[in-house]
Give the backbone structure.
Amino acid sequence: MTLQKAVLATIIYHDIFNYPLRNKEVFKYLIENKSKYESVENTLRILINKNLISSKANYIHLKNKSNIEKLRAKREKYSKQKLKKAQLYAKILHLLPTIKCVCVTGALAMNNCTEYDDIDILIICQKKTLWTTRLISNILLFPFKRTPMSKNINNKACLNIFIDESELLIKTKNIYTAHEICQTKVLWDNNSYIKFIKKNDWIREYLPNWQQERQQATGNKQQAHAHLLLVSYCLSLIETLAKWAQLTYMKSKVTTESIGDTQLFFHPKDTQNKILKKYYQKIANI
């Protein structure tokens, strides 16, 4: 993909989310083209002169998208408030010793939440405790959790991704998944996030300029929970029962969920396919 097409593709992808980009963000999330920052800046100027994109208040976006920079500022304000809720949920989840990492994904990870959005949470758990971790996590966050039939989802915790540390590779490889991985925001971590990123190095096929930001140290969770090792061991013993109970409950309710032995993806809507369809339709037009 040429640099001009890559820059346009990057702006188009984020336009689906009504998300204008700063110059550095265009460079960071540049699609399928590894280029220097100076080259990206020069290309942006060329595309602006060609009247293919617009620049306002230091934000880059497609033509005919008025006030989109104000929308981003408003959503950043909502996201800041929701992040405080997410951090509370993460502190509660920290009580469970099988959890190795807690992150937010989706709109909140990009500070692009609407006022009434829920909070998408990704959890990496220790080996062979996937279903036990999900069960206990849902119990711990029950007062704050989104349910399948919820009408009011504002600030509700949506525990939609669980990953066993023995299988960190995300096998669905496309531009949407690459963005979701790169945009993930860590709330706390016990040395699992770096392993997660390394295992999914394929993301650089789609976003070659992206670099992992340095995560703030969160301490050694193993030491913090040394007195709970026996609890962790006991939880692993009930994994088979926890899996059977949850699969039995979900049997008649499964729609777009992806359920495996080491990874669980629960999505109220099939967002990925919708986004990819919009993206490729818009790309076809240029």
The domain at 83-270 is CATH 3.30.460.10 (Beta Polymerase; domain 2). DSSP finds twelve helices and eight strands in the chain. Residues 29 and 207 are 6 Å apart (CA to CA).
